[in-house]
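Researcher: Structure for this, please.
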Amino acid sequence: MKTEQRAETRTQTVLDGSVTVKAERISCRLKDISSHGAKINSVSPLMAGTEISLSVGPFGSIKGVVAWSSKNDVGIKFTDSPDKIEPILLGLASYASV
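Model: Predicted structure, token format:
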């Protein structure tokens, strides 16, 4: 049985985005997000420990590190400051409420 280890709830979503690893841009779909991390589905597998930048349309990008991966599902732990992440989350929230 898998135990939930997050301190906060993630918001479910289905948005297209991309992950940049070094100079390579990889398409992905954002499945959920919080101020500390996200779950994506990537068209290419990503290894745990890989530094990435997650871009979500016009809302901006967030730096992070791959915390885990299982096939093409990937968990990302954000490394950017909360001040950088908050406006992106607010943009996503306003988009979802339209």
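Researcher: Any notable elements?
Model: The chain is about 15% helix and 50% strand. The mean pLDDT is 86.
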